[in-house]
Known about the structure:
The complex is a heterodimer.
Chain A: H1 2-20, H2 24-31, H3 36-66, H4 88-92, H5 95-104, H6 119-136, H7 140-166, H8 171-179, H9 183-187, H10 189-203, H11 209-214, H12 223-272, H13 284-294, H14 296-302, H15 311-316, H16 322-334, H17 339-371, H18 373-378, H19 381-396, H20 404-414, H21 417-434, H22 437-448, H23 454-482, E1 486-491, E2 496-501, H24 504-542
Antiparallel strand pairs in A: 1-2
Chain B: H1 2-16, E1 25-29, H2 31-35, H3 44-59, E2 72-75, E3 82-87, H4 98-107, H5 109-115, E4 123-125, H6 142-188, H7 198-201
Antiparallel strand pairs in B: 1-3, 1-4, 2-3
Amino acid sequence: MLFVEGMPLLYLELAVGQRMRQGSIGAWRTVSPYLSGVGVASMVVSFFLTVYYNVINTWAFWYLFQSFQDPLPWSVCPLNGNHTGYDEECEKASSTQYFWYRKTLNISPSIQDNGGVQWELALCLILAWLVVYLCILRGTESTGKVVYFTALLPYCVLIVYLVRGLTLHGATNGLMYMFTPKVKQLADPKAWINAATQIFFSLGLGFGSLIAFASYNELSSNCQKHAIIVALINSSTSIFASIVTFSIYGFKATFNYEDCLNKVILLLTNYFDLEEGSLTASNLEEVKGHLASTYPSKYSEVFPQIRNCSLESELGTAVQGSGLSFIVYTEAIKNMEVSQLWSVLYFFMLLMLGIGSMLGNTAAILTPLTDSRVISSHLPKEVISGLVCLINCAIGLVFTTEAGSYWFDIFNDYAATLSLLLIVLVETVSVSYVYGLRRFESDLKAMTGQAVNWYWKAMWAIVSPLLIISLFIFYLSDYVLKGTLQYQAWDATQGQLVTRDYPVYALAIIGLLVATSIMCIPLVALGVFIMRCLKRGGTALVG
Amino acid sequence: MLWLLLFVVTAIHAELCQPDAENAFKVRLSIKTALGDNAYAWDSNEEYLFKAMVAFSMRKVPNREATEISHVLLCNVTQRVSFWFVVTDPLKNHTLPAVEVQSAIRMNRNRINNAFSLNDRTLEFLKIPSTLASPMDPSAPIWIIVFGVVFCIIAAAITVLVLSGIRQHRREDNELPEVDGTEEKCENVITSESSIPCHRLHMNGGGINGVFVTKDEWLTPL
C-alpha cells in the first residue's frame, strides 16, 4: 500500500505545492481555474478536522493534569454513598472505563440527551487552542521551529517506552501475537481497505497541508527525495510504535488473564474451603475435574460463576477509536511501578503528536487565507490566526457536552473519509490528464534538475486512480448495504457499550458533512464556468 | 450424673454454634496471602486469641461488659482457615443478637486485624461489611493547580509574542517615512569631508563609487 499509493501521492502533492508556490486554493487554480474547487474542498475538510481534532488534545491535557496525583484517579473506584463498597457503575465496568466515561466525559446514554457543557473539559479545550495559537502566531516559519520539538520528543518517549515495555511481564505474548500473521484476516478485503485508508491519514494526503508546507520550500529542493524519505520514516515509525503498543498490550492481556485465573482460584478455594495455596494456575483444570466428580451438586452451584479465562481472548479484545489510548493504555499504566511518571510521559507524548497534527491542519487553512490578497491586506497575520482559533474553539465546545463524544465519533468517522478519497482522486486525475503528465514532468525537471522516473508516471496516471476508485466504490457499497448507521453508546446501568441507531437529524448532519466538502468541487467549477460565460458575453457585447 | 451434664452442655454448645445457625458468622482468613513466608499456622492458640478479641469487642458494648472468652464458641474449622462463631450470653443458653455482634466487630475491626497482622481483605467476616477508608480529598484539586500554572505560562507567552509583533509593525511603519526624509536632506547638503553631493554617492545604492578612477585608466593605453 505504501509503495503503490502512499509514496506516489505524497510526491505528487509536494511537487504541486513546490511548483505553484501557493496554498491549496491558489495551487489548483493555477493547474486549471475549474479546479480551484479542489483547494476549497481541502480547506473545508481541514476545517472540519481542526474543529474536532483538538478535542483529543483536550482529553490528553485533562489526563495529563490528573496524572499528578497519588494514587492515579483511574486506578481505584470511588466509594458509594455509605462507604461500604464501591460505586455501582464502577464495579460493573472497570475503574479505567469508569474514569473515562463518567469522570472525563460524563457521557449521556444516547446522542439525543445533550446535557450541559462540562466546564473542566471546556477549560482544557480553551487551553489547547491557546497552545495551538501560540505555535501558529508567527506563521509557518515559527511553526517550523516548534515542529522540531513536537516531532522529535515523541521519538524519545517511544524509545523509553520501548525499553520499559519490553521488560514488562507478558510483553512477549503481545509481540508474538503481533508478528504471527493471521492468514484469515489477511484474506479479508476489509483489512486491505483499512490499510489503504490508514496510509491516507497517516501521510496527511488531501488535506492541503502538504501543499501549504511545500509552497514554502525552495524551488530547487529535491521533493522526490523528500517524499521517499518522509514516507519511509512514517511507516517505520508506525511499525516502531506498534511494537511498543503491542508489548504494552501483551502486558495488559497477561495481567488480566492472570487476574481472572486468580479470581477463579479464590472462588473455588472459598467455596470448597480448600487449603490456601493448594490451587494454582497449573493444577486448576485437574482440581476442577476432581471437585466436579466428588461434589457434583455443590460444583453445579458454583459453576455459572466460573469464568473461562483465556489469554487468546484477552489479546483479541480490540478496543476501537478514542477508547484505545484512554482506556487500554491507562489500564496498562496503572499496573506499572511509578505509574505517575509513565502516565505523564505518555500523555505528554500524545499531546506533542496531537499538537503537531493540529499545526499541519491549521497551516492548511491559514496559508490560503494569508495568500489571498483580499483578506491579508485588511488584517494582519496574528488577527487572522486568532479569528480562526476563536471560531474553532467556539464550535469545539459542542464536543465538551455530555453527548460530545458521540458527535466526535460522527466527525471522526465521516468528516474526512469519503471526501479525502474523492479529493485525492481528483488531484491525481487533474495533474495527470488535465494539466498534462508531460507538462508536469518538464516542470519538475526544470525545478529540480532530475527526470521523473517511469514508476512515478505509471502510478500517477493509472494505478493510484484505479485504487482510489475501487476504495470509493467499496465504501459507498458498504454504507448502502448496511442500511441505517449505528453507533456505540455507553449504558451506565450495565456498565458496557450498547449499539444504537442514529436519529434522523444525526444522519442529516453526517450527510451534510460529506456533501459540503465534496460538492465544493463541482460547484466552484460551475461558478467559474458561469463567470467565464458572462465575461465572454460581456466582451462580445463590448467588442 | 456429671457425665450426663457435660454431655448436655456440649450438645447445647453444638446446637448453638453451627454453620448457618441463627446469629452465627462465618470468618475466613487468608494468612498465606497476607504474610507469605512469615505465615503462622492456625492452631488452638490462635483460636484462643480470636475468642479473646471477640470477647474484648463485646465487652466494649454497654450491657455486655461481663462477656468472657468461654462465651465465644467456634466450630467447623476448615483447612482454608474458615470457621463459624457465635457469642452466647452468660447463661449459655442462647446466642446474642447478630446486630450487636456486628456493630461490636465493626467498631473494633482495626484492633482485631492488627492482632493477627491481617487486613480487611485477608481477615473476612462474611455478612459484616467493612467501612472502607475514604480517599484523601485535598482542599484544592491538584489538577486545577497544574492547569493554572500551564495556562498562565501560555497566556504570558502569547501576550509577549503579540506585543512584540505589534511593536515590529509600528517600527516598520515608522522607518519608511524616515528613509524618505534623509534622502530629501541629502539633496541640499554637501558632505564636509569629500565635498561631494549626497545624491551622487547614493548612485547604484552605494555599490559603485563613481568618483573613484577605474583601474583601466591608471595605465595609459599602449
